[in-house]
Protein 1
Amino acid sequence: MLKGAFRDTTAPVNGQVSAQPHPITGLPMRVRIALALLILAVLVPLPTTGGRVVALLPSLKQIDWITAQDRRLAPARDALIARGLARVGYLPRPSLRTTSDILADRHYLATRYALAPIMVLPSSRPVLVFADLVDEPRAIPDEFELAEQLGDRLMLLRRKAP
Amino acid sequence: MTGAAAITVVLPIAIIWLLVDATLREPGRMPPPLALRLATAGGLGLGIASCAYFVALVLQGGSLASVALLDGALAAASVALWWMRRSDRHVRVPSPPWSGLDRWLLALCLIWAAASAALFTAVTLAQPVGNMDAWLTWNARARFFFRAGGAWRRSLEGYDNHPDYPLLLPSAVAHGWRWLGDSEQAVPILIAAVFTGATYLLLGGTVASLRGRTAGLLAALCLLATCGFVARGTWLYADIPLSYFFLASLALLAYWEVRAAPQVGALVWAGLACGCAAWTKNEGLVFLLAIAAVRLPALLRREQRDWRAVGAFALGAAPPLALVAFFKISVAARNDIFADQVLGDFLARAADPARLLEIAGFLTTMLINSRSAWLLLALPLFVVLMGRTPDTPARAAAGHVVAVVGLVAAAYGTVYAITPYEARWHLSTSLDRVLFHLWPSALLAIFLWTASPAECAEGQRRPAS
């Protein structure tokens, strides 16, 4: 099977196979040097690759942060879809002042990914705003009221009427 | 669940395998190596699945019934053609026996394949969502398609980071998810594994078919030893699929050219791969233009203009290109490099010598610091020592591949010269990936042009006799 995968099909059309395999000792010296150089070059990075695999082994038992966020936000996504929402705003951490700050924030980006197909806009101006307060002790900001508790400090907030 | 995910990825490949097996064989001649046929079916099967899913998405919101209908029709056509061509499968032509050198090279390939598979598995287990753009762009889109169905445009209109990027990868992922009924992360991982593995097989299989087994194994070994290639596969971006489609198109064109095949099956598949490249990333459109610029004059210069060949290539390319046209017209998204720019800005940046020096310096530093620097050093020496092949059609095919790769590389260089972004940032975030678009095709050109060990031995023997 393996040998068939690289079957030599350069044989003539009449099907006669003229060439016997060339023993490596029968090859000209320059060809032997060329082959040795190439084989040496492909062997050099092999130990590094093995080392990278070994280095990764301890991290295999851990769940990466994006996957963990994705799993945590999945019930919230289902609840928002069940509410018939297509887009919501986003309550950023207080340190994020501009839209560019929010767009570069990994919490916001992970939320976008986890809540898809709900569009999470990088602004708290919409009437309904998604908030993830798990890392923050702060209460709901004054201009908002709770629209729906989504569990695990995840909330849908509604902007209060002015 | 992972087993079921594997079935959703393998099924479209199996369907296309029948078509490939029926159309790449020539009556009375040895079939192409299994590696070439498997690799062609692997990547192009997923490409066709992506096209079918997108059609179902646009027409029926990607419902399971519509996807099943399209996949079923494709399966029926494949089985019918495979059955009609069954008599061609009984050709048995002996292959030259395996030399000691070939056995050693196969063993090295297997060791490298095992190391690459271990690295791919370890990285995707540690970080199953891939690198940032995978979950931010490619798989986020697939989630919109799968979960929002008819509202698929929503993700692209003013929300997506790169709304003008074509949709082959997200549609292929959503195709698997639709059959599975769940957005299991195993599907994009398996798709990445298929494209990465198929590129190795396609390169090795094509070179083995056209230049002999030893050259094929050496070519596969060089790509396997390019450590960054499998690492980019684990990122789950569209770059490795694009690299595969570039190679598939050029390899199948070379196969048709060198084998002087009377049948045009390989050309239809080459056209399909070219169309799929354009359906994968915008760089695929550049590739399409490069292929047209290099191959059309050659075909039309012949005494008898080969319209049949042009038609076969166009027939394959048409379905994905129609989707690209529909997508570009209906979504009309802005491109971040060309939008809001005027010609004067481009020219001013392109004429800035400091910028051009910075690009050249960045490229040189990247290549010197690459884990494959030894390979980059050894390959030119290998080519010089082995010399060129006496096989004129193979050298001509190599020339065509070099011309296409050169044109695409020139286009990439031009984009870096005119980009509105800071050049260093743009280079550092993309240059390594775009080099891998062209690397397998460059290896194809090298091993098509270089004399094989058997030819060198024959050349030594001839003067003595």
Note: Chain B is about 75% helix and 0% strand.
Protein 2
Amino acid sequence: MNDPLLTALVDARNPDGGWPTVKPGPSTTEVTSLAVMALAAASDPTLGSEIAGGRRWLLSQQQSDGGWPSARPVTESSWMTAPAVLALSTDASSRSAAIQGGRWLLEREGRGLPWYARVWFWMYPQSRTSNLDTELKGWPWSAGTFSWVEPTAYALLALKKVRPALPASRIQARIEQGERLIYDRVCPGGGWNYGNTRVLGESLAPYADTTAVALMAVHDREPREEARRGLRVLEEVMRDVRSGLALGWASLCFDLYGLSSAPWRTRLREQYGQTRFLGKIKPLALAVLALHDGARMVRG
Amino acid sequence: MTSRRSFLRATLATPLLLASGACGRSSRWQSGAFRKPATSRVAILAAASYTGPLVDTILDGLKLCGVQVQDRRVVLKPNLVEFDPASPINTHPAVVAAAIDAFRTRGAREVVVAEGPGHRRDTEQILLASGLHDVLRERRVRFVDLNEDQVVGLSLQSDFTGLGRLYLPETAVKADLLVSMPKLKMHHWAGVTLSLKNMFGVVPGSVYGWPKNALHWAGIDQSIVDINSTLPAARFAIVDGIVGMEGNGPIQGRARPARVLIFGEDMVAVDATAARVMQVEPSKVPHLAQAGEFLGNVAADRIAQAGVAVDSVWQDFAVIEAFRHLKHG
């Protein structure tokens, strides 16, 4: 284990087996999930106990409804169920937990407009401030709120990993609608912002990390024009980006689409050398995942 | 079709407003739980540019407002939204740098900078691109991403949202002095975004997402009031009005220099004064009107103004059509 990023990720592990967002801090579902996937991608036989410990921590956090909360003291199942499903779906010992998480995701959906808002916009169509199809149901960040790009993308990636174990018609419908939502949220110039495309008539600019995650969610489909344009936009946006988070997601995304990620991997290592990703563990886990061909871990 | 739509507009508009919760409820806070000051001190100090003697200006502001700093753990909460080199979206790093130096000079036990951007997860990129990371590194100041901080569940101390309870980050909850450092900006949903609205940034994205959409569903104005009534830490505000934003803020508006920093312990009074600097009538801003009932002072005759007079620095900040009614006169 002579990769400094891999060593740093192992060293960032908490005594309880999980990983925090920064040290010191409590273990969180999202970072632990990405760390488990990253260590598994590294295929280093000396890391077996760290991977197993991470999986055990994740299993210990699963709620009775099948979902995962973000971190203690929160107990409500959350959007972080999707990365937990991704992390646990590839190992036989934890796959049944991943399938339960998949069932929870199947039942979770974003909220549409309330009835009075629908009537209002029918009466005053000019008062609509966005052109989104609010009837499409993807996945929300928190219960009772709209669907947004990133939790929808995460959920799509997770459900595609456990698809064979879930009711075929239901999962097919949710995946198709989730993908339609992803395409509905494309920015006017291509790529993805957090979920809106325009505000008060002004176009929103795409973000690198959101664009990469959205593209990853539809990677298994024949690329539509929006996806091809999104890949071009991602490459453009990445010229000005220095964060480990965006570089990690972009590397994984280009790998999934069979495009060269070599320049982004090089920049990942350089950036880590310069900033240590400001001490954040999530970009570190993403970097290790990307540098060890981790795209296969999320492929549907 | 059009005539049927017109008929329904005439008959349904009022019931729809009622159903949407736009009309008020009574008694949304416990009388006795809050003590609004009889008068509030607010200082407006001239600051011509970001390269001027900002540390001295902030030290003057702290002194004029009489804020206690010695041995306190101070958490500075700037407004970081996203970075566009051509637009004054964020609290300028030079103001944050000067605040760090000023609070240390006044004997703060520790100064921490903390923020949880509202719709961008990539805080790392915003810090690097905005130049704030360089400021923090040079001064060896810790940054806490409030979106990912350890959280505690708190019962809301007022009930404008009906949420009852929120998870909030420990760094903000346990601060000895929580300093809101907003940019002087118009906001396309809330009218203005100042020290009270800036506290949206303490709500953790790890629980509520990017954007913090649960707060939008509960009502932006209502959420601003409930968050501010609930945060237990002592508060102070420093508004970066050296260059503000008019029009379609908080991101896509135009730069508007006002060349001031605004200080105070009563954040409602600070925001009311900052609104007046933008020639906005604060009592017409819903969250200021609501907060002014129990958290602090909005009325000009309840604000002891120090420094330069409002009408010597005020600027006619442009507003979007929906907020034309907020303007003076």
Note: Chain B has one domain: 4-23+34-326.
